[in-house]
Fold:
Amino acid sequence: MSARATYAVVLTPPGRGAVATVLVVGPRAVELTSQLVLRDSSGPPSFEPWGRIQLGRWARTDGEEVVVAALDSNRVEVHCHGGIAASRAVLSALVAAGCEPIDFQTWNSIERPDPIERAALTALTSATTQRAALILLDQYQGALARALAEIRGLVTSADWAATRQAVTNLLARSPIGSHLIQPWRVVVAGPPNVGKSSLVNALVGYQRAIVYDAPGTTRDTVTATIALSGWPVEICDTAGLRQSSEPIEAEGVGLALRAAAIADALVLVFSTQEAWQPDWQEFLDRWPSAIVVQSKCDLPLRPDDHRPLGIPTSSVAGTGLNELETAITTRLVPQEPAVGVAIPFNAEQVELLERMLSAIDHRQADAVLAMLVPWLGGAALQR
Ligand SMILES: Nc1nc2c(ncn2[C@@H]2O[C@H](COP(=O)(O)OP(=O)(O)OP(=O)(O)O)[C@@H](O)[C@H]2O)c(=O)[nH]1
Ligand SMILES: [Mg+2]
Structure:
């Protein structure tokens, strides 16, 4: 970036939110923005004192309402309507007036040399639940940087047991961190016609999958992304598991098995309305850690000595859904992280911790300290 140029960057992620923000930064920020903002009666805006918020209209569009504020003589924020079109129009007018456009990633890496802070801010723009956003905000505000600084202190004092424990604790939380943006995968499987699609629809809150009283209704895997107890989850409905000579159904069963094999949590659904079948037992043997659901519990239970315990649910009456949600989230996140705790949230951080662990096991203090250098000393520690 040149110190003489004036840049314009859209700070808000595309397509989300009611408001979009364009930042103009550089020596001509105030001058260029002033030319483009009309105020109803009193002429161009007067930005001083810095931070003053003003309502105006964007001159190059059809009177798009904007809110403008100069943070200092080099930085002006233009807030316009959300979505892509308004921010793009504001940006192109600024470029036509003499600004150089830069993208958010470039801006973020210049503005935030601290790698944790930069990665947290980038991840925050994609967070889909409040819980994920709050955890990322904790890391942005220094939780992970402080934990790494503590580890540095432990290494310096050669407290190897405590060092190892601290790194292991961080690594144990990394599955949470890696599922703040990328949702957990929860697969709902089981025999045909037991109510899998109905259960998925009940959890999702709308008719995502087709429900029908003939077995073999669902053929493809059908997914929906939801929040379960604040965690982002992709829930996947699957074809009923049975031997089928019908090629499309057989393909669906193959997809279901593959989805079950890579699930973070598997929900096996059985129906209280059918006698317990020998091949149902095979499912339990195949997936012993699956969460078992006994569905259609609004109807009288069909007594059966072989029937295993499970969460009784009714998609019709809404029964058991909270218990199922708790069982799924306890499986995904067995230990709730405390507020403000350090959580590594990307592959690069996990790789650093794994390399550190190996160096710790070889008592290589200098190597561990060298690994930490690029991660410490940034702004996140001061927050
Ligand atoms: N009474 C009652 N009926 C249910 C419940 N859940 C599902 N059903 C009925 O059971 C039948 C099958 O439901 P689905 O949700 O399509 O079952 P599925 O397991 O997805 O079936 P496949 O896709 O064919 O494997 C439908 O007639 C549903 O209305 C329930 O909780 N209570
Ligand atoms: Mg179905």
The longest strand covers residues 65-72. The chain is about 40% helix and 20% strand.
